[in-house]
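user: can you give me the structure for this one chain? tokens are fine.
assistant: on it. calling the predictor now.
[tool input]
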Amino acid sequence: MAIQPQTAVLIGILLLALVTVESGGYFMTRVVRRKVPANALQVSFFRAGHAHAGVLLVLSVAILSVIDFAQLEGFWSFAARTLVPIAAILMPAGFFLSVLGRDPEKPNRLILLLWVGAASLTAGLIVAGVGLLTAGLAS
């Protein structure tokens, strides 16, 4: 089975998005060398945001590389293809945006993005996993 055109486009977008994670690595080197002012909470959240961005983008590419085999349709196809990439945006955004400002003591309300992203990740993994299992067992 050949890769679907929409799958190839989304993988291309995700690979280009990894360049932003790469440049975020430069920001992280500045944070840990104290070239950018950040308290301990910010440093830990920036690290977590950076790590989640990279891992979730790569996970998204891995899922998209095989999801066409599941032959999902409609909503289920959309969910399997997009929920993990959505999590790759929301979770890091929650980490970064919730600790912006001068010396925050705790995350702000934007931490909600982290939890919405976690729900998106969980749903995407379940739909893609069940879809692939079903397709594999049916063949």
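assistant: here you go. The two ends are 13 Å apart (CA to CA). The CA atoms of residues 41 and 105 lie 7 Å apart.
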